[in-house]
Design a protein that fits this description.
Layout lengths: L1 H38 L5 H21 L5 E3 L6 H7 L7 H7 L9 H33 L1 E2 L3 H14 L6 E5 L6 E3 L5 E5 H6 L2 H16 L2 H14 L4 H26 L1 H15 L18 H9 L9 H18 E3 L7 H11 L9 E4 L22 E4 L4 E4 L4 E8 L7 E6 L4 E8 L1 E2 L6 E2 L4 E5 L4 E8 L2 E2 L10 H4 L15
Parallel strand pairs: 1-6, 3-5
Antiparallel strand pairs: 2-3, 4-5, 7-8, 8-16, 9-15, 10-11, 10-14, 11-12, 12-16, 13-15, 16-17
Length: about 500
Amino acid sequence: MIGLSYHLENISFLMGAVARHQLLTSMLGLAVIVALSWFWRQRSPRVRFSIWMTFLVWLILTGVLKPGFGLPIHSPNGPSWLTALASHPCDTPIYERFSNALPGPPLLSWQGLLVLIWAATAIALCFRHLQRRSHFRKVVKASKPVTNPCLHECLEHWQKQWGLGREVSLLQTSEVTCAFTMGLHRPVIVLPESLLNKLSNADLEAVILHELAHVRRLDDLWLRLQQIAQSLFFFCPSTWFLGRRLYQLREHCCDLLAANTLGAKRYGSALLNVARIQSSRRGPPPALALTGHRNFLEQRIRILVHPPGQSSSWLPIVVTTIVLTLLSLLTAFRPVSADILPRSESLRILDELRPVSPLQTSFIAKGFLGGDTASCWLPIVANYPHPALDLQSSEPGQVRAVAEGIVESVVRGIGSYTGMIIIVRHANNVFSSYAHLNSSDVQKGDAVSQGDALGDLPGGQNLHFEMYRGSKKVDLSSMEKTVGERFRETPSLRHPRDHTAH
């Protein structure tokens, strides 16, 4: 039960850190994108759509990659807003979370409850999108080919004109009241029978062109990506604002494509005729429907009357990518400061315990404050604080207690920090932690003496060893230098269960 509560506590910590970072950075990114979109407001909807799609991809990448990415800066007195913005799971490795999480936390803390609520909501939203998509797949499956040969000729003509090599099917149904498009490899355009019966062939050609524009732009693919982001990051207001903006720009792009082909006056007239027929429709429209919400129609007509510039340029997209990348680097820098006891107090604790080496024939793979930026792919000179000792042996060996104490917990790590994690409580509320063990020879509550075997460590594997009192780490740097020889002494190993009394 203790191990389960530890796992839930650490998972909730990781998810909470990701959510906090995603919420703050997404709001910053939204402010940047709104400013860039306003700056290029005279550009074509296609350019502005690309800007917002870049923002969508950036949101997903920051949420997925942030837990493994970070650039440390040593600024213990940094501003609180930067600390809150930049902190993420890398600030506290999983093994340190286990080391500092002593027995006693409830099985379901409020953080764990929030994670469960997030997971349930995200699953529910994904299920809703899948259910909606499944409904329209059934509509497509039950639809039949359009019987009007003129419309098929129109579709084939514009496919050739636009250079679309994919086969597009033209279907009709009575189950929906608005036209929509689905599919990537074999897309289909579904026309409601209400439109087929009431619109002229000229107006139906405008409807087909609009839906064919969705096929040409691969809008179904971008829509799926948008729905994934909205499901996973539903707690970020920016994702919902982004979704609405993408919907508007997507329709503007298709409107202008069709209007440039048929003429703005003819296409606008067809759009109004479709809106009149659908004014009494019931039920929500498909995601890639022609008219969508009624209050959006006036804006679409206005853009047809006064179209923005049609120039296409990569400059806005390149600038947006650079700005968002710089924002990612800014939020990747995080003030880090290890909460370490003063050196004098640490020396006093070590003098009282006189710890021995927890691993035979070992060498120090990573020092107490030494380290590297292994989680960062950039050549940063600064090192990440490492308030522990990593010991390594070329051969499998037994890990032993550095001093007399009581086994406080034995748990198994998660993520990349696999293996057993053993915590021993010593005198004066001092704890020692041993991570990455292959197996455990002790149980919670066992009394151990100095040098007793705790478990096995595979050859070549690092033993992450640290000591702390309360929430502060004991400075072990003296064990590398002045106490180096004594630290590497190797008394005979004993199993704690071999003792008759302690």
